[in-house]
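Reader question, answered in our methods column.
A reader sent in the components of a multi-part assembly and asked whether the whole thing could be modeled at once rather than chain by chain. We filled in our standard form and ran it. Here is what they sent:
COMPLEX SIZE: two components
ENTRIES:
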Amino acid sequence: MIHVHELTKQYAGRTAVDRLSFDVEAGEIVGFLGPNGAGKSTTMRILSGYMPPTSGMAMVDGHDVFRESLEVRRKVGYMPEMAPLYHDMRVKEYLHFRAELKGLRGRDLRHRTGEVMELCAVTDVRRRVIGNLSKGFKQRVALADALIHRPKLLILDEPTNGLDPTQIRGVRELLRSLKEQHTILLSTHILHEVEQTCDRVIMIHEGKIQACDTPRNLTRSLRATSLVHVELQSATDVAKELEALPGVRKVITSKTDKGWRAYALRVESQTDIREGVLDLATAKGWRIRELHRQLPTLEDVFVELAAADSGARPFG
Amino acid sequence: MCLWNWRRRTQGRGHLDDETMRVFWTLLKKELRAFFVSPVAYIVLALVMVLGGVSFKAALSVLESAPSEGSIVTWTFHAQWFWLSYFFVFPLLTMRLFAEEKKLGTLETLFTAPVRAWQVVGAKFTAAMVLYVVIWLPSLGNFWLLDWITGGKVEIPVGALRGSYLILFAMGIFNLAMGCFASSLTSNQIVAAVISFTLSVLHFLLGVFALVVGRRLPESMVEAVHYVASVEHIRLFTQGLIDTRPLIYYASLTLLFLTLTHQVVEFRRWKL
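And here is the structure of the entire assembly that came back:
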């Protein structure tokens, strides 16, 4: 669906996107992940036909984004960051206007407008002026606009930005239900979001791809360590004994409370030492009231990748 | 037979042309709507009506006090009041057009829909032009009223009336195109208004300056000077002297500024 090859975009000497290459298959949900200014929005703007790349090539459904811009725009539903809308229009009026621009007409236009309003849960506010709506509603109106012409590809720039947790869950469920008919490329900072919704993650930092894999594989191949939390009752500090267990890199004593001691064990991610901890406790006669493993999240991968890169260039 | 053939031939391309025009209409409807839901249209309308009334009254006083060469039409469009309204109309009508979209970020949604830049520029300009025409229509009522009240005793020359509204339209579209251009340069409506006002005034003053200096210039240059002098155009047209040269002058400047606006709007596409 998307084919990007050596895509580069420069603004006044600054390289926003640096020789980016990736492909997205039809029916996939791909998450674009990266800190602010990483080049996510720029890439999405190029793919939606808003501006041309400096060099390289981007194709959407077999059409070049620059030379066949109008064709590409008919196939892409794009929702920009911050969901810009006309504040003096009413919701239904705005969607009618957008549908007409995108080539819908007559009965189909009215039917489809009703359909997307229902889908994005804005039917109740259809007669309200957009400027007076809350952020969540505005976001959903913008999403309805992106969907209205039944695009093959949806490009959503931070679709959950500024929403409350309930609304975020709503958007996530909506995206999953849309997967059947659309290919989706979305960007976000919320890593949890990507883990929940996306089939594949493309991490980009300073205009370059840092990693590209399924969320699970990414966390699995993580260089970072995982944490095991244990809370036990013993007469003395047992940090030394815990540290002696195989695979444990470091033990952090977090708190003590009436004889109960809590420890956080930094463990190599491939190993599971929970049984080892339990065996040791049984042997030594400690009582355990908590033992659980905290798997590394994408957030850890993300922070690690970003840190590794900026380590070479401080304050970069 | 010939017509039938022509229609059949155009039907092949018809699909694209229909589509292009439909997008233009959609955009135009939206722009016109935006004018009439905001107070701007009504404020400008009221302003022009009041100042139009005042300059009409001033013209009547002139005719009343002494016999005069000019007709009521000439004196109406020569009153200072007329120029006052003239300069304020264009910034007020055009400042919003592109600046607001830039500020809201809606140019991005607009240009990721299958829409061409010239359709957007054309629709915005046309909407402003329609409003401009609407704004001047009530002033025709003054002449009609005078005719009705006096029972046709005051002579209202139809030719002069036609000429006046024609030059008003020609100068109008030129200034509106300049306003569109000003609005496309910035995301701040006030800045857009100031630029547009300055350009209008500068063009006007250029004309006045040329007229003043022109008297001392050689004969061949005097003619050139008359091309830019709006005051001179108004003077001639309100007497019913319809000259095609100023009309072509304003039409070509309108095209020039619309092309510039188009280039500015498309800037992101050719800056690399």
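What stands out: Residues 275 and 291 of chain A are 10 Å apart (CA to CA). Confidence is low (pLDDT under 50) at residues 311-316 of chain A.
Send us your own complexes using the same form.
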